[in-house]
From TrEMBL, chain A:
<protein>
    <recommendedName>
        <fullName>2Fe-2S ferredoxin-type domain-containing protein</fullName>
    </recommendedName>
</protein>
<dbReference type="InterPro" id="IPR001055">
    <property type="entry name" value="Adrenodoxin-like"/>
</dbReference>
<dbReference type="Pfam" id="PF00111">
    <property type="entry name" value="Fer2"/>
</dbReference>
<dbReference type="GO" id="GO:0005759">
    <property type="term" value="C:mitochondrial matrix"/>
</dbReference>
<keyword id="KW-0479">Metal-binding</keyword>
<dbReference type="GO" id="GO:0046872">
    <property type="term" value="F:metal ion binding"/>
</dbReference>
<dbReference type="InterPro" id="IPR018298">
    <property type="entry name" value="Adrenodoxin_Fe-S_BS"/>
</dbReference>
<dbReference type="GO" id="GO:0051537">
    <property type="term" value="F:2 iron, 2 sulfur cluster binding"/>
</dbReference>
<dbReference type="InterPro" id="IPR036010">
    <property type="entry name" value="2Fe-2S_ferredoxin-like_sf"/>
</dbReference>
From TrEMBL, chain B:
<comment type="similarity">
    <text>Belongs to the cytochrome P450 family.</text>
</comment>
<dbReference type="Pfam" id="PF00067">
    <property type="entry name" value="p450"/>
</dbReference>
<dbReference type="GO" id="GO:0016705">
    <property type="term" value="F:oxidoreductase activity, acting on paired donors, with incorporation or reduction of molecular oxygen"/>
</dbReference>
<dbReference type="GO" id="GO:0005506">
    <property type="term" value="F:iron ion binding"/>
</dbReference>
<dbReference type="GO" id="GO:0005743">
    <property type="term" value="C:mitochondrial inner membrane"/>
</dbReference>
<dbReference type="InterPro" id="IPR002401">
    <property type="entry name" value="Cyt_P450_E_grp-I"/>
</dbReference>
<keyword id="KW-0560">Oxidoreductase</keyword>
<dbReference type="GO" id="GO:0020037">
    <property type="term" value="F:heme binding"/>
</dbReference>
<keyword id="KW-0349">Heme</keyword>
Amino acid sequence: MNMARSVSILRRTFMSRLHGAMCPKSNAATQVLTRSYMRSFTTSAKCQDAKSNIGSSEENLTVNFINRNGETLKATAKEGESLLEVVIRHHLNIDGFGACEGTLACSTCHLIFDQKAYDKLSSVTDEEMDMLDLAFGLSDTSRLGCQICMTKAIDGITVRVPTEVSDVRRDQVEKQNKQ
Amino acid sequence: MPGPSTLTNLVEFFWRDGFSRIHELQQKHIHEYGRIFKSRFGFQFVVSIADRDMVAQVLRAEKDTPQRASMESWQEYRDLRGRSTGLISAEGKKWLTMRSILRQRILKPRDVAVYSGEINEVVADLIKRIQTLRSQEVDGETVTNVNDLYFKYSMEAVATILYECRLGCLNNDVPQQTLDYIAALELMFSMFKTTMYAGAIPKWLRQFIPKPWEEFCRSWDGLFRFSQIHVDNQLREIESQMEKGKEVKGGLLTSLLISKELSLEELYANMTEMLLAGVDTTSFTLSWATYLLAKNPQIQQTVYNQIVENLGKDVVPTAEDIPRVPLVRAVLKETLRLFPVLPGNGRVTQEDMVLGGYLIPKGTQLALCHYSTSYDKEYFSAAEDFQPSRWLRHGYLDRVENFGSIPFGYGIRSCIGRRVAELEIHLVLIQLLQKFEIRTSPKTQSVLPKTHGLLCPAGAINVRYTDRREGQ
């Protein structure tokens, strides 16, 4: 009984206190709190290898995505921004792209680069490599878009979204059904 | 579509204790019926898939909110007690919301890397514990039932991350609160089979056979109580820090309490379910890795040599060091191929799909047979053998494409604790091998796997931890 009550009191104070604490007009102490929270966690798909100009708000770089239907989607990008972030920010219509939100749990943001651009990209981690193993339409110049950050060196690149390979079995069944 | 009859299945599971041999039955049925077959399980119709390409097809076709299987009894308990669902038991939008919040904190490798220090402290305690335990044996080297030891390691390591506190599992005297939790956890797993049976029994029968359901609720009560205590403790700690005007620093739980993206009930539920999912899974895998290394001394020596050459004999490793010892990663992958903790996983189809030439309607329960694909000779040469080197890349572009062995799953509903588990296992394996040579002893028996919810060792794994000598 006592336990339950103290927890419910605790809960109420928690709610009210933290609500107060997280309001925009917070005092200095809670600002420190918010900052330290922001520090200990990478809260977005920000690239770790983009050493300079993180947070630069200038959109002075460009990327071209060739979508599955062959259409070219041109987008502006900021330095240090990942290709996944570019796709999300511009609401580019690439079906199923970046399902795991850059947490290296899938390979839906798989992109194919031309050799010249590929050679300029940051090195690939074991975890990205493992996920690429499970990507379809893999090529020698494949990378995951969530791991690639825009830099001046690759400004203006064109990347290709791998086309869905047609499923042989489905074709067979459709044929059978027609017969 | 071919498959065993309902009657055969009933006899197999209820009469011949098929539950503990689910992984073997998978292989048997595939041999008889092929890589896709149907079976009926009481009222439940299941299509089993043991084809790597079909598994890939199913997982790649997933949309926003994949569904694993019906978790009705879990849901029912939560409704009964006014509790929230967590990542295991939730479905649909609710699941996606919680997943999105949690994955941004504990799934990215670099977010997890910061826990190296905390995990290494637990590793140091584990090594001390091994030294104590072996000194109690006649030969001064053997530790019996290593899973008991690794269970405590995994629980301690997960708790440092989830609750930001130490539980004292590896102390000589384990605190009562922790013992209570372990008892609840054991009850949970000992009842797993009973609840499987109970799940097949209609609800109205509970008034005649009430025990399974009562025990199910009792063990959940214990699990929830434990995480609630720790969440509330942390909450009090944060409050007192704030009252003193101090800067509040912390890890996962602190950030979740501060950000308020999850309600307190959702936090209790997710902490409960993540702890539940993060203990046995890691400890079974460590037990098997220990067993396999003891049984394959030459392979163990190769791994040890790589550690010494690339890291050093007694350098305490961190996450950043792991890429320099690819054989350690390979040992984990190969251990999980031979003993996938989850021998099979479920998916409910979200739309009609054609699999292996069959039209599978929306809403069909699929069983992805990971155990069988892991041992498929077409996918893995010498599939029965422990060969970590098969996972090494021999060049930058070398691919080891394989949906045959995906122990953590793939995609948006894959294991959220994957990177935590990997780090816990990589760091402990390196340090165990730096310190000890793991050897078989006269007490080492042949141990086979059995399915008990998870794939676990059917017997005790007993090995010797022999100190590494100078120049070894």
